[in-house]
Amino acid sequence: MFLGLAVFSIRFSGYFTTGATSVSARLDYWQAAIRTAAANPAFGTGPGTFAIPYKQIKKLESEMARLVHNDYLEQASDSGIVGFSLYLASLSESSFVQGQKAGSTPLRFAVWLGLLGWSSQGLMEFGLYIPALAWPGVFPDGLAPCRTNQFDKPETTG
């Protein structure tokens, strides 16, 4: 991972020296999302409404955005602390349960690793608002409580 980051940094160093507008724009979105969540702590501003408060508080030089570019801050802004806490608790619980089962089979490990990657990607992107990207993240969440079928196991005697 560190080698990949180093190669990426060297390869795109010119982009970073010109100001990395995408990076500064995301920081601006994230600050606005935190301010919006603080101003509407209980239930947020509503699903998909980040653009409305952002338009009012954004800097003049900032470009307009409809989404926060961070699933966690998007939940805090749109759903408030209640929705954000429930989202984080659900994701944490499923990651924990999948993590406990990860070593049992290669498939369980792959599911856990995929959930971990999807959760990490949510820090920089907004996969929850794109259905084709949300389903692969939500599907392992649904597998988390699955247990092995106790009825088909042979009885042990003795």
Features:
single chain; 158 residues; mainly alpha
Protein architecture, described:
The chain is an all-alpha fold and 158 residues long. Helix content is 64%, strand content 0%. The chain is built from seven helices and no strands. Helix 5 packs antiparallel against helix 6, helix 5 packs parallel to helix 7 and helix 6 crosses helix 7. The relative contact order is 0.10. The mean pLDDT is 81.
Biggest sheet descriptor: none
Order of helices and strands: HHHHHHH
The fraction of residues in strands falls at: under 5%
The average pLDDT is: 81
Distance between the termini: 51 Å
Q: Show unreliable segments.
A: none
Number of DSSP strand runs: 0
Shape: flat
Proportion in helices: 55-70%
- What Rg do the Cα atoms give? 20 Å
Oligomer description: single chain
Structural class: mainly alpha
Q: What is the count of helical runs?
A: 7
What's the SSE blueprint?
Layout: H1 2-11, H2 13-17, H3 21-39, H4 51-57, H5 71-101, H6 106-121, H7 131-143
Write a brief structural summary.
By secondary structure, the protein is mainly α. The protein has helices spanning 2-11, 13-17, 21-39, 51-57, 71-101, 106-121, 131-143.
